[in-house]
Amino acid sequence: MRALDRDARVVPRAEEVHRRAPADDRRGLLRLQAMAGNAAVTALLQRCGDEVHDGCPCAGERAPVVSRQPDAGTADAGAPKCRPPGTRRAGNDADSVDQAVRDGCVDEAFGILNGHAIFGLLPLLAALIPRGSFPALKAAAGGMGGPRMTTAITVAELKAKGGTIGAAELRPVIDLLGVWSVPDRRDALDFLGKLVVINVRGLDLDFSYCAGATGPGCVPEVEKAIAWAKKMQGEYAACRAIKGLKDGDDVDNAVFASLKKQGINPTVAGQTSPTGVVTITPKPMSKCQPILIRGTEIHEAVHQKTTVALQKKFGAGTPAFDKQFFAPAKWIQDDINAYGAEIPFYEEVLQALALLEGKMGP
Amino acid sequence: MTAMTVRVTGVEVDPLGRDLLRRWLVTAEALDGGGEITLLVHSPSLAFRDAAPAGRVFRLELAEPVSEPYAGAFTAHPVEE
What we know:
Strand content of chain B: 35-45%
Strand order of the largest sheet of chain A: 1-2
Low-confidence stretches of chain B: none
Oligomer: heterodimer
Strand order of the largest sheet of chain B: 3-2-1-4-5
CATH class of chain B: Mainly Beta
Distance between the termini of chain A: 84 Å
């Protein structure tokens, strides 16, 4: 038993070997020096460098490669400083991001931040604002997280300032939120305690549709949509006076020709590739897009209702159905009705936007 | 004229707002040649004579050369499966 105890005492545990190995090596060399003299130690350690001399014990060796060794005195010596996101402090992203930035691991920090949805990102950023690492984090936000991150930081900082958030503070944020998705905009406003919603025919309107500090709200765009719907009603109504229209396609072609005559090209210009494929240029997303999408859905609901009614009456795909479906007079009236359904929706949107403007505060 | 049999896989308001008259984007899977075609239409229910064309198979006849997305005239005839 005693021998075993002694063995147990002399054989260090693995981590002790790791920590103490350099010290033991030094002691070993000192013992060798004491026992065998300087020549033996020199023969072991001496390296020739760039010049090799005859008789040098290392004449046949290559020059040693010098590399920095990890600090043997720390518990995580040898472990890489930066880690895969989420592996630093499990369950505590604020601490993980903070520590990662302090260690210069900006990639790791933004790997964590960028993985968060807005509703999680905003409180996380708010928790990071008081930390010493925040200025460095903020400085890197544009490059590492893009406009989504810089806007999120602006929102978090506005919240962190405390106090009442009025229109003067909110409008610059509204300018930034315009390119965000509807749920993200809502989460940001909710985080700021400024989520006021007015539902208009299935569409939730909030402050993100209002005017910003520099950008306009959705009022001009909705007014344009009303004007377009009224114009199109007029265009379809004018087709009633055109003789010889055989079906719905003829009606649509007549409307298209009329618009072209007025210099209006409803299709955004496209590009033709070398293989002849035309790609129609997309328009950039606007903050008012959800309103226009809802208006288009309301328009389509009118066409759907007509289609279903004709199917019920005549049977889908029957000659009687086709005759009614494509009849020019019916086609014209259906589009007048469909554009007509958009107009009251847009007018209600304008009323709701005016109400929201009034609720934003000073 | 190009003809193809397709299954309509998606109907949505064109998120990119590329055409003031054709505001709907219909995505369809070409069944005879493989691949996908996207069409800008004024109204999915009028273009396909079906209030809910998603999931159904149609024979398309495109009057103009195929473009991406296709915004020209076409006819759609339902194909019974």
